[in-house]
Structures are given as structure tokens and as C-alpha cells.
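=== RUN LOG ===
request id: a7f3
mode: sequence -> structure
chains: 1
length: 266
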Amino acid sequence: MTRLNRKFAELKAANRKALIPFVTAGDPSLDATVPVMHALVAAGADVIELGVPFSDPMADGPTIQRSSERALARGAGLRYVLEAVRAFRERDADTPVVLMGYLNPIEIRGVGRFAAEAGAAGVDGVLLVDLPPEEAAGFREALTAHGIDLILLASPTTTDERLRMLLADAQGYLYYVSFAGVTGASDRLDTRAAGERLRRIRAGSTVPVVAGFGIRDAAGAAAMAVDADGVVVGSALVTALEGAESADEAAARAGAFLAPLRAALD
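=== RESULT ===
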């Protein structure tokens, strides 16, 4: 059983919802990434989504775009991201880590090489925003060979035909984008409409369905979790970390941000 499968099984048995924070690797500093990851787990994170910095993050709003730019300027490439996961695993062998990013850095490295290195580092899942599901078979095969799940995305504009394909191929969990837009646009979040869609998707899914985009605080997390198996919070957390002057300060900010969301979900 993979770490992701084990974690969601534990949550289901305890009747709890998954809390999945997103942070950009290398921001607010290179040496803060691993302490922030540990602080998030201590504050109640069930899974960590670690953003792979990319120069053209088309699905992300200004907050995460800027965090990627800052991280890249510090030298936070794919090698650094994998080293951060490896360092995290020295103290935490249980919390699943999912890399979230874009195709280009992986294709440059080579899919087979990336899968082998990611598996060895302790990565549990990979979510590639710009990988069409129709073209995902080769990526899935390479990742699965190293014990890594390919996490797929669904959205309000996903057709029923494509949704059936996504549900048939889903591994780990299915990430439901709560509205058609970029990350961080919380003013566009309609929890009622998203809830209706989530209920229909979960009814046909064999994997957990988590909701992300637009969730910025404890109230939003609790509202979205009603009809989802978990929630992802990213831009608001990235904002909370911005400008931290030390790894210790960044870790403290991360824990302080996440703890109220954990309390609200529980």
C-alpha cells in the first residue's frame, strides 16, 4: 500500500478530512523548505503538495507566480526540489509528498530518469497541470514503476466523457479545481456549486476527491470539506510565508497559518 493510499484509508477510518497545504519549494528561502514542511505536518497536514518552480506557471495566479520567480532566482530547480524531499524523509517516513508543477522541467530531465530519482527521493505523487490525460499513459507507466501516483485534475468545465476517463485512470486522489480560473482567486469560489459537482464526482470515484483553488482560511476549508475528501490550500499559505527572514520564522508562520484550518476541519 502506498503512503497516499494508507493516509487516506486512515483518514476515512477516523472520519476525518485531508488537509493538504501547498508550498513552493525554495520560497521564502532555500533553507526554509524542509523546516516549513515539518512545521506543516506538526500543525496537522496530512499530505504536502510541493510546488516545483517554473518560469511560466499558467494555472497559477500572481501569488504563486511570484513565489516561483523568487525560488528560481535562488536556484531552486528540479534537483533542489528532489533534494528537499530527500532531506524531509530523513525525519518523516510517513507523510505523503506530491510534487505539483509543469511538464517542461520533467521532459528536459527525461521522464524515466525523473521517475527513478523522484521515487528514490521519497516522492509519492506527481501532479502535472499541463499534461493532457489523453497523453498521460507513458508518464503514468514510468511513475508507477517507481511507486509514484500520477494525480489527475478535474474542473467545472470537464465533460462527462473526459471525467469518466479521469476516474478510470485516477491514482492516489483526484484534484478537483473548484472554479475555472487560476490559483488564489478566492472571490470566484462558489462553495455551493462546487459542492454539487463534488458530490457527483465522488459518487463515481474509486479514489478520494480533494478540492483546491480559492481556499484561503479556516471557514473556506471547512465549507469545501463538506463535500470533498480533503482540501488544498496554497496561495494564502504562500502569502503568509512571504518575506520570512529565516527558516525558523518561516516554519513558525507555516504552523500558525495551518493550525486553525486543521481545527476547523476536525
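=== NOTES ===
Confidence is low (pLDDT under 50) at residues 180-188.
The longest helix spans residues 247-265.
=== END ===
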